[in-house]
Amino acid sequence: MSYVIIGAGPAGVTAAETLRKQSPDAKIMLVCDHPGLPYSRMAIPYLLTEKVDEQGITLRPDESHFDQLNITLLHDSAAALDLGSKTVLLNRGEPIQYQKLLIASGAKPRQLPTPGNSLPQVQNCWTLEDARLLIAHLKDGSQVVLIGAGFIGTIILEALIEKGAKVTVIEQGERIVPRMVGPEPSALIRNWCEQNGVVFYTSSVVEEITEVEEGGSLLVHLREGEVIPAERVVVATGAEPNCSFVEGSAIQMEGGIVVDSHLRSSNPDIYAAGDVAVAPDSFSHQLVSHHAIQPLAVEQGRIAALNMSGKEVEYSSHFAMNILDTFGLITASFGAWEGVEGGDSVEIMDSTHHRYLCYQFDGDRLVGATTVGRSHDLGIIKGLIQSKASLGRLKEKLKEQPERLKEIYLEWSKPGFRI
Amino acid sequence: MHKALLIKPVHCTACQQCEMACSYMKVGAFNPSKSAIKIFTFDGGGVKVPYTCTQCNEAWCMMVCPVGAITLNTETGAKVVTEARCVGCKVCTIACPFGTINYNSDKGVVTKCDLCNGTPACVEVCPTNALTYVDADNLNSDRMQTHAEKSHTSAGEVAHKTL
Ligand SMILES: Cc1cc2nc3c(=O)[nH]c(=O)nc-3n(C[C@H](O)[C@H](O)[C@H](O)COP(=O)(O)OP(=O)(O)OC[C@H]3O[C@@H](n4cnc5c(N)ncnc54)[C@H](O)[C@@H]3O)c2cc1C
User: Fold this and answer.
1) CATH of span A328-413
2) Average pLDDT in the A362-375 region?
3) CATH for B3-160, among 3.30.70.20, 3.40.640.10, 3.40.50.2000, 3.15.10.40?
4) Low-confidence winner among A57-61, A119-123, A412-416 (lowest mean pLDDT)
5) Which of A112, A130, A193, B14 is the most buried (most CB within 10 A)?
């Protein structure tokens, strides 16, 4: 069997390893579009803060890892697919043939549709090159404007502040991290960040970025009239799938590559996993990619590989999960944190201590949660949601004592527990 | 053959010796809140359950780690955090469906049970044999297995080492 994987991010690498476990003799080719070893985007903030060096962000620390597994790391990039001859056309080398193909080409940052967006002082924070550029230009006290306060923007914010930058954040939406938490926890995080020196402009749109002098400092003009000076602008306004090389082929796309419950695309020999794939959300049932969620990218890479090697394994837990640390305040959200139709919830707010807890139920099942100000036992929430566990009478107990999740969970998982 | 931690809640008296010993191994201080094993009491104190990582086979924490900081100790079967490599992103703490890997904000890294490299301190101090370290093959039906079945979390992949 010969397998080709396009993209050496967490989804592609996990898939390659899983394929190797399943088929010791198969030919496995992993197409990696950047020099060096596969690395992890989500470790980039820690490279910025110098918690790790460049070696520290590689997905697998051992340099000979891929050789040892007899996985060919091909430094090239996919230009187009020829489904008829089952071939991937590359930008540099000869076309390669596959019997089964996995597209794991991830996502790229959305560009700012604003005049001034291509000035050299305006950048993303998405790749290793971006990180190097940012590190080279950041000094203690640098004035940075960060555009976008989504999950990734806010992670970058934390790293920028730790690096000593003075950061102003511009967010188009009414609140920060709007797709991760609701208005109340969002306000808590905002307040906490403000106490740590961050300035936010929400419901604000950047209209133009201009240079004070060529190559020098910038002015960020808001639609609302404000003009904010900056030495550097970092853009974090969302992501879109990397699938230009699929366009024009017969593969079904809808804001990404549409996959079925076995992560197969509309072509039976082609699978997709990670940020490039779109599947129905476990709760809303709408086709979504859940961009930028590492655990899903890894799980999809693993399950796609199992299916590619002939095991029938269903991918059934497609729901968001995020954990965010802003200056020591830890926020996490899971699944249908906004609630589901006909569902009910329990909520505790303690704004003096920046603590918040909310569980969302559908009948006697936990379907979503938000927590602010706690870092322990969070995995249990994910476990209960993913298992679609019937909590029976324990649901009411959890509603009465939301803080006692772990005890209630243990009671639920006891042998012989009957709902 | 691997050995595994065998937990028998019926023998547990919630004396917390295991938590003390574990935290001493982990952070060099007797501080149950830093322990990787925790005792839970419920039903008004009548039921006591020591709870820790079961070193499940397809460890979610290990798979999801963006920098390969969690690896398998092939001798003990434990999934072990390399603190020098951990960036503290906490993604493992929301991916593990059992909640047995947690963030230590003092150290900026995650902590979990690593079976103390084959001589679990919790077992050494447990006065009632609620915790023992036994040949993994001798274990059959257990709580985690039950959990795995309940939760469809690929039962075969979830550990079977807690009773
Ligand atoms: C700054 C930052 C912080 C983040 N923090 C978190 C976090 O805390 N928690 C979390 O869950 N997620 C986080 N994420 C998101 C997480 O990194 C992604 O969800 C994850 O990387 C997706 O994995 P993937 O394998 O699908 O795609 P990617 O990691 O994007 O990998 C895809 C690879 O394919 C390559 N590629 C693209 N096109 C081609 C082509 N034509 N040919 C060959 N190769 C190609 C890409 O260059 C890339 O190397 C963060 C992301 C960023 C940028």
Assistant:
1) 3.30.390.30
2) 96
3) 3.30.70.20
4) A412-416
5) A193
Contacts of B68 in chain A (CB under 8 A): 58-62
CB-based contact B42 A415, cutoff 8 Å = no
- For chain B, the structural domain boundaries read 3-160
Q: Under an 8 A CB cutoff, do B94 and A56 touch?
A: no
Alpha carbon of A100: minimum distance to chain B alpha carbons (Å):
23
Q: What is the pLDDT of residue B158?
A: 32
- Output the pLDDT for position B147: 47
**Long-range contacts from A50-59, C-beta under 8 angstroms, 24+ separation:** A51/B87, A51/B88, A51/B108, A52/B67, A52/B85, A52/B87, A54/A128, A56/B67, A56/B85, A56/B87, A57/A128, A57/B66, A57/B67, A57/B87, A58/B67, A58/B68, A59/A8, A59/A9, A59/A10, A59/A13, A59/B66, A59/B67, A59/B68
Answer whether CATH 3.40.50.11290 is correct for domain A2-108+240-308. Answer: no
From chain A, the residues in CB contact with B88 under 8 A are 46, 51, 325
A96 three-class SS: strand
pLDDT tens readout for residues A58-112: 999 999 999 999 999 999 999 999 999 999 999 999 999 999 999 999 999 999 9
**What is the complex's ipTM, to 2 decimals?**
0.95
pLDDT digit string (tens) for A174-204? 999 999 999 999 999 999 999 999 999 999 9
Report the residue of chain B nearest A329, measured CA to CA.
B105
Across the interface, of A10, A302, A323, the residue whose CB is closest to B94 is A323
Interface A-B: count of C-beta contacts within 8 A:
144
Rounded distance between C-alpha atoms, residue A226 and residue A224, angstroms: 6
pLDDT digits 0-9 by tens, B69-91: 999 999 999 999 999 999 999 99
CATH number of A122-237: 3.50.50.60
**Which chain A residue is nearest to residue B149, measuring alpha carbons?**
A387
Q: What is the pLDDT of residue A411?
A: 83
Q: Inter-chain contact B94–A58, Cβ cutoff 8 Å?
A: no
Out of A51, A379, A413, name the one closest to residue B94 (CB).
Answer: A379
pTM: 0.94
